[in-house]
Amino acid sequence: MNDTAQFLALALMLLLPLSALIARRPPLGQTVKFALAWIAVFAVGLLLVSQFDRLPSLRTLLYDQQVVGQETRIRMSEDGHFYADVSINGVERRMLIDSGATITALSQETARAAGIDTESAMFPVALDTANGVVEAKRGRAETVRVGSISTRDLGVVVSPAFGETDVLGMNFLSRLGSWRVERRSLILTPSNQE
């Protein structure tokens, strides 16, 4: 939404309550108080919307991850994807869950923070991604935890081509007892064997 459209929307939102006040013809002092209250409400709302990306607690309320019994439920984000709060070797990251990715893919920064050794890998691997073929190094995460689900010794690939993106792939999902989507929520159920 451009600035002009935002201004017009805000003006319309302010005009409606003001016109209701004027139609009732309350005393001027009361009208000014109501007008200032409405302006404050809309200003706070506008501030929250404009700073949405900087408010992780607000994002968590809207795109939360909950443990219900043994299941971990992750609500779909606005972009139609599922993002999980994941612990990799004790390092917390927000990761895209992608059933189209064969293997879990980590950014170099995440791999470094989690202490994942990629130097032992003799040769890089070529991966066919949505952005073409990229070269990556193999590594292993000792522990990966998502909500109530924990797994050990998970294979990962690391590449500068991934940028800052971390992806939880099918090699993680295949270790689950089950996973499914119901009413815009991804439901992960642990395996009894993990």
TrEMBL record:
CDD domains: retropepsin_like_bacteria. Signal peptide: none annotated. The lineage of its organism: Bacteria, Pseudomonadati, Pseudomonadota, Alphaproteobacteria, Sphingomonadales. Pfam families: gag-asp_proteas. This is TIGR02281 family clan AA aspartic protease. Keywords: Hydrolase, Membrane, Protease, Transmembrane, Transmembrane helix. The keyword Hydrolase applies. One of its GO terms (molecular function) is aspartic-type endopeptidase activity. One of its GO terms (biological process) is proteolysis. The chain crosses the membrane at residues 30-49.
